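Subject: Sanity check before I submit

Could someone independently write out the structure tokens for this chain? I want to compare against mine line by line before I put it in a report. The sequence has 314 residues.
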Amino acid sequence: MKAKFINENIEDVLKPKSENEIKKAISKYSSDELWDLYKETNNVEFLRNAVKKGGLKNVGEYELEHILNDAPELSEDVFPLIVKNFMHKLKKVGDTYKVYFGGWGVFADLFNENREISVETIQTILDGDAFEIFEHFGEKVDLENESYAISILSKKLKDTNIHQDLKKAIINELSRHPEIDQSDLKESDNLEKVFNFFLKNKSHLVYVAIALRDAINETESIAAENVAYKELVNKIKSVFGWNNQNPIYKDEYFSLPISNDNIIKMFNISHGIIDKISYYPPSYGWTGDIEDEPETFNDALLNQLSDINDKMSL
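---
Independent answer below. Compare away.
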């Protein structure tokens, strides 16, 4: 609808001098007329009054962004428009909302990019596709320094047979060295004891050493990736009030309750109306401990031992 006064000068429209007279002059116009005048003049006073009159129901995302850039204090007034133009599915449950999302990676663009980390890297980590960023293959591992970690893993993996697989690999490789007493090894009933036997005889166990190093490297890589993932997820949770909550997964979507204020905050961050989330990775990069990933280590070592058994059988 074209405002009837659209060709009037702004000073003519607001000619009355007192605040009450200005309000009275503006009150003559409908929300659509005030919206048209706001677009023509970019005067926020017309915008405020258009919003207060409850109009603008057909305003789209681009125009809503323009409104909130000009007058962010109107966020609560235009809340129904924010819900309508929200970037993720919202469902009202009682007096509150739930937000639905495919994974944490959809929130990556809410982060501020800096020299230490890009939005692309953040998304890769949150999508769970960042193994190549963290992989440690080829790095030197001092197996003597892993005794403490192996002792912890031994307790965490007490219900698995990984020590038996490692024992078999050692026995297989030591078949070339019949002079070495294996009685301690045969009596070893956990991963720590088998590993300690390995350390005493590692000069004769080249293949087993490679398997252990590669398994440790792989586990450390995944542990570091998990540390980075948890840091970023916890940062998102802290910003939107989800500190003590975990999303519910159903029908290929996660969901979390979200307050009106946090709906507004997420929309405004996404559209550059308020500052994006600030995050800086640790100065020396993320690090993970293999003892925090017992199942990962178990699977990695099983795979490596399978590979060296194939090599030794050639």
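---
OP: Matches mine. For the report I'm noting this point. The radius of gyration is 31 Å.
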